[in-house]
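Write out the bound-state structure for 5-amino-5-deoxy-1-O-phosphono-D-mannitol.
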Amino acid sequence: MCGIAGYIGNQQAAPIVLDGLSRLEYRGYDSAGIAVFDGERIRMAKAAGRLSVLEKLTDSGRALPGFCGIGHTRWATHGCPSDENAHPHMNQENTIAVVHNGIIENYRKLRAKLEKKGYVFSSETDTEVLAHMLTEYYRGDPVEAIEKVLHRVEGSYALGIMFLDHPHHIYAARRDSPLIVGVCGEGKFIASDVPALLEHTRTVYYMENEEIATLSDEHIRFYSIDGELLSKEPVTVEWDVSAAQKDGYAHFMLKEIYEQPKALRDTIFPRLKGDRIDLEDLGLSEEEIRRLSRITIVACGSAWHAGVTGKYVLEELARIPVETDLASEYRYRNPICEPDSLVIVVSQSGETADSLAALRDAKARGSRVLAIVNVVGSSIAREADSVFYTNAGPEISVATTKAYSCQLAAFYLLAAKFALVRGTIDEARAKELLSSLKKLPDQVQELLSAPDELSFLANRYLAADHVFFMGRGIDYAVSLEGSLKLKEISYIHSEAYAAGELKHGTISLMEEGTPVIAVATSDRIYPKTLSNIVEVKTRGASVLALTTPDHRDLSQVADHVLFVPKTDPLFMGSLSIVSLQLLAYYVSLGRGLDVDKPRNLAKSVTVE
Ligand code: M6R
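---
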């Protein structure tokens, strides 16, 4: 999604803003722009395409001197990616510049009104209405004008604004789109995400919904949308700069795949106190856990896939009925929230628009909401009743890897704890689970030490038009994620099927050479999956199978077998996914694609 960076201080603003934007490139964008106050005017440069085009246009910012500036990377929603539609947008007099993340939903109506009054638009964007509305309401006090505008717009926004009349100020505002304010000595920053600031500061203020901020040489002030002065404390972000850099890896995705053992350790071990799982900070009493009648897991994309595994594990261990729903469906389907039910919202970014809306809906219906979130201080983390933080560290690559793995670990811990409290497993089984959990990071490490086979296998898929994934139970949940990994970064069409479903339709697509990836790690249903593999082989499919060393016989059926070490059957997904992540990575690499920034995608989907 779009990115915002802004700076005011005693250094040249443009290079800092451009650098901030470059740290947000991973979020996905198709044009970029910057506005800087040069002592007399607000000067602007914008360009469709990569940030490098803008950097060239501005001589890496040197062509736009000045100490106060705002910049933007745009992911097109209203109007195609073009120079004109790129942000910032300015009013006709070039006295007000605006960058905006989000969507102004009533912009058509607002635009028609403004056009009637004689305002001339130079872009197709929803954002441009803001620049003209600010002109309409501005009477010398920017905050007052911003308030008036915000009271009239519907939708979501994170805004960075400059007024020529107040040249040493940046104004910011947010509703349902993240925005933070950073401070480091004389320098003050705005950004839509933490990595844009890490080079300069880790001291940040998280803006809440419908808050306005003013940043000047002297101060940072926060106001409510009704003009009330607010007091706010800064927080220190724990992530360090190197966490958001490639550290010698060719891509963030590869680095993040290799960071999984550490991420898992950091998520699992702080939760273990001797032989106990400590979830006290979640504020769920044992009595409440015992009374739980239903759990609904709500999320999008890979986080939803983690939730599919979560359902299997929670139901198996804690014997609580669990449903896993897509947040975009949940929020519009009038869900039933029983008194003793728990809603678990899963999100790496903590800013996904649908997941946030689902959370609010669940709370409004009286449900208790637990969030499994990676980004500290994100909207979902702040609005949930309690938070289970995954400690994956910053995840930059659009394709999630380590955050997904940590979400799985969070579900394992929750399930084991709930099961023990509810008496659905005994102490001996709990010990067994904990012992397997503790070994997981090392087992992932072991898998990562042999990537060559996957790099070699990837060649088989470089020219594929489509790939089918299949599995049963947890192997199916992993297939969903493996398939998404492959399609999102390789652009090869791919679908995952519950293996038993194939013969209800999909098997008609099998023909000579059809690529199938079968995940068959579960001993309990191995014979069933094996039959499905034989069925597709009989129809000519070329099968790559993932299984454990217990099933060497699979080599006689599949074209190629990858062996995954064994762990508790409920945790197998954490190991099989590693091979599928690496496979997707090498296929994308082999096809010469932009691994970290796949086309049309954004890291954090903050609009519907
Ligand atoms: O930040 P979130 O976990 O809420 O994001 C949800 C999805 O957009 C995300 O998991 C997406 O599917 C992944 N980038 C895919 O790799």
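---
The mean pLDDT is 93.
The chain is about 35% helix and 25% strand.
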